[in-house]
User: Fold this.
Amino acid sequence: MNNNGEHGVALALFLLAGVFYILGWVGSASVLSILGVVIELAAWISLFSKDRNRKPD
Assistant:
């Protein structure tokens, strides 16, 4: 992991997904939980696409 902040977007998406999971669980709203899953998938894609496209130091 580098210190250039490349993983900041993925971390923010993971945290946002967690918020939607909690809101979906507390409010018994499956739509929010599904939205959390979609956001988490976007976070994983963002994380791996950043690593794959990163230039060697």
Observations:
- DSSP finds two helices and no strands in the chain.
- The chain has a mean pLDDT of 71.
- The longest helix spans residues 30-53.
